[in-house]
Amino acid sequence: MKISIGILAGGKSSRMGKNKALMKINGKSFLEILLDEFKSFSDIIVSQAYDDEYKLSGCRFVSDTEADKGPLEGICRILEAAENEYVFICAADMPFLKKELAGFLAQFISGEEIFSRQKTRAADFDCCCIDDGERLHPLCAVYSKSTAQTANRLLSENKLKLTEFLQSIRTKSVSLGYTRFDKKQLCNINTYEEYLKALRPVIFCVSGIKNSGKTTLIEKLTAAFSAEGSRVAVIKHDGHNYESDRAGTDTDRYTKSGAVYSSIFSDEKFSIHAVGKYDENKLIGMVRNDADIMILEGFKYSRYPKIEVVRKGVGNKNICTENIMFTVTDIEELLLDDDHIDMNDIKKIIERLKRYFEENGGTYAYRP
Predict the structure, then answer these.
(1) Are residues 184 and 41 in the same domain?
(2) Is residue 368 part of a domain?
(3) pLDDT tens-place string over residues 332-346
């Protein structure tokens, strides 16, 4: 079934303090992420607060006719402009949303899906929305175009709550627990703290020449981030053909028997020994879902952002050539430069790290 896509991008973003639709993850704004996700749909409509608020292609724009009417105003204008009978409505602050969820909900309202013992028919419902077990999500829902009449009536009566809108039309809820979709898709990023969490995992290198103090700095950063409640993973490259299993242990015997992976764990920790050619990107892929912050020791030639350590008596200049966020050092004359931080000032180092990733919208991913 063909449906239109409606994205609400005209909110005040009062809790964030800036336009959420333009905030970035991995170098792309929330709105750009959603437009890219739904690009296979022929009719995409973005609701804005006023004309020419955004300069983007791949969609049509509608503007509020009345100010300060909240999301119901945007929903109404999208429904009126839609080319198709049904419209999937979401908010611009939902960058993790996937197009498959829109298609899934459309099946219920169109009568193509059997959700219980009775077959759902299009005529039975005006709206189908997700229920995550705690609440309904009117901004993750498919609406009939005809519900614009009800929305207009409620706007004229200044009844602006979306819960009242759902109660005024024939609404079907679908439990998220019965689907294959992750609750993260429903996440609205409303506050700066939620935004910072969405940027994770943050990945950066601590680089420098041998004996410059990389390990000591990583130890201090790991302790500080862990004290804040972050889960930290560290990846180190060893140029030598090291052995992680002691000869004669069970995992060593499994490896020698031909196992690609051998693992051992207790109630408090676990270890995996893997055989084969690995690089930092493959290891990142293995652990990234369980870490908030990933620190790579070394990797001075990689394209991940870097802190470079320059230590007195070991070296007096940078050796990294690209993607240096800043340098930490104990050389006093270098500290006169704002791009250099005292290597023992962990608080300032962390503040600068956070600022970098905030300003760059979480641009942590490897870019060949």
Answers:
(1) yes
(2) no
(3) 988 988 899 999 999
